[in-house]
């Protein structure tokens, strides 16, 4: 089985260069902006998105240079901007084990620093001077903002089905991972077959990633994930474990699940009851099977590329999604 | 003296085309996004920014076509996105005479629709496919987000001086008007002298515009402006009338002004007292003189262009800033 240590060792040289580029490219002349940006940017993020861009470029045969790392960080800035705007949106108490930014600085500042990081991301894409990259980025950000809104609107839509859920997570998560991989191919000047393949690879990876995230929100441990467990439950957010449980549940159990999720005063006891009801219908196993399905699809795509250490590493990253606890 | 009716008549044909383009280019497949966008986009905005782009292009000898109007609306979308994020920021009760969006839909939705409009703006610039345009837009949005943050940080900085104030309003207002004019020149393929001139023209116009806005927040009438009068006062926002009064005031009067602006419980009486203290030091006249100074600078720039109906119209728009009440 693939281990975290194994992956971390393989990506260490890239991560180091990504961290340097992250440090170098977000600076504002307003010190406060740097403070908030640093809080969100250097709070133990996995750098998955920049890493995917860099590895995708390498998979396409392009050796990565400082320009590539610089370009890659725009995906982390976009991601950070989303997290900042999502902090307000989600009212999440913890974000990667630290106090959520809006508790430290207030909604106003947090929104504006999100805007700043978003602008920096666009600026980096413009400085790269590649219209194809800009095309991908601008499509992506539009889809992402719609996705966040869809998620908000679906907060108490208890009849959201599996397809509706995929639509939300496509926009919320998959499209950015997809864009990172696609831009890797563009950077490597592989604008046809490889570009399409990597775009799809990132998308499948994104589905698997978000499904696992939503699963861990029920089954993870707060200490390990650094996030509150049960956040989605508290917010009444409809995610795949609920959908898969509700689809199989008896009339009574379904009614109770909706009641629990809708409840204005969530308690640990109610969370526990919800988990038990979901477990009764094997919702967690089934959710994991769905994640595995998308990982398999991602691996199938990679099989189109020649074997190489980079392909091998991307395969391990895809497989790791299924075993990760964080 | 230049009248509103005179200007409105001259700009009517352009405005109509701008309105059409505004309608056509913001559509989301999420109906709720359209609802919020429509609320902010079609609430009686003056369309100053798209208009400036279109007129700048025409001043450079480029006849304006559908593509130009399409490009021009990105400036309105950017402006609307700022207003939406500013709604949360400012807690303003009214915005153009309507309920502020966050009172109708909550902070979360409003932030996200702001993000959507921002993305649409970038998308339009990308679809235009001109790197110079993208360069201007991406610089502008970075400066704007820093400007909003600076303004927030300066909320209770009662030692903010005139230069500090100009720095804030450059980023908050002038840079977007400047970008609209500059992009007009780029669109007309006048990338050298005219581009620099129009960039400066827009900047001066922006200073004059924001200074007048800040003046009207003290001297305007709520019915006419559709905004709360005294909003800046209530928020303790340091603007030019305060700065110019404080610079001349006796020790006692200055102390009182700071007290009034800092006061956690602003009342109409305290607002009245503030206005009287400012009037005592001729702060409103002096603020207006500053606005006039920037309008003069803008007119000097226009003198570099050959006389034409378009130049004449831009001159009138610049002059109108000084007499407008809205």
UniProtKB/TrEMBL annotation, chains A, B:
Protein's GO biological process: isoprenoid biosynthetic process
Domain of life where this protein originates: Bacteria
Cofactor(s) required, per the database record: Mg(2+)
TM helices/strands, residue ranges: none
UniProt KW keywords: Magnesium, Metal-binding, Transferase
Cited PROSITE patterns: POLYPRENYL_SYNTHASE_1 (PS00723), POLYPRENYL_SYNTHASE_2 (PS00444)
Full protein name: Polyprenyl synthetase family protein
Family classification: Belongs to the FPP/GGPP synthase family.
Keyword Transferase recorded: yes
Organism in which the protein naturally occurs: Thermodesulfatator atlanticus
């Amino acid at each position: 089985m693939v281990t975290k240590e194994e992956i971390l060792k393989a990506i260490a040289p890239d991560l180091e260069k990504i961290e340097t580029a992250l440090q170098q490219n977000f600076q504002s002349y307003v010190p406060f902006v740097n403070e908030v940006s640093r809080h969100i940017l250097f709070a133990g993020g996995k750098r998955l998105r920049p890493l995917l861009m860099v590895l995708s470029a390498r998979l396409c045969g392009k050796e990565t240079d400082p320009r590539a790392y610089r370009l890659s960080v725009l995906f982390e800035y976009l991601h950070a901007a989303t997290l900042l705007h999502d902090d307000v949106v989600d009212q999440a108490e913890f974000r990667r084990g630290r106090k959520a930014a809006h508790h430290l600085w207030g909604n106003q500042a947090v929104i504006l620093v999100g805007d700043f990081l978003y602008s920096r991301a666009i600026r980096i894409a413009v400085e790269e001077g590649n219209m194809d990259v800009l095309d991908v980025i601008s499509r992506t950000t539009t889809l992402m903002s719609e996705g966040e809104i869809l998620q908000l609107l679906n907060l108490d839509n208890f009849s959201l089905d599996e397809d509706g859920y995929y639509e939300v997570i496509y926009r919320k998560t998959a499209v950015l991972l997809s864009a990172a991989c696609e831009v890797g191919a563009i950077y490597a000047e592989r604008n046809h077959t490889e570009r399409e393949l990597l775009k799809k690879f990132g998308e499948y990876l994104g589905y698997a990633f978000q499904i696992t995230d939503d699963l861990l929100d029920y089954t993870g441990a707060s200490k390990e994930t650094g996030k509150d467990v049960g956040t989605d439950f508290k917010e009444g957010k409809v995610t795949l474990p609920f959908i898969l449980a509700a689809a199989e549940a008896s009339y009574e159990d379904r009614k109770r699940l909706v009641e629990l999720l809708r409840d204005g005063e969530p308690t640990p006891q109610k969370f526990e009851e919800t988990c038990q009801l979901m477990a009764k219908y094997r919702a967690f196993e089934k959710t994991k099977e769905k994640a595995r399905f998308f990982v398999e699809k991602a691996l199938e795509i990679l099989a189109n590329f020649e074997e190489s250490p980079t392909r091998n590493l991307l395969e391990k990253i895809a497989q790791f999604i299924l075993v990760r606890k964080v």
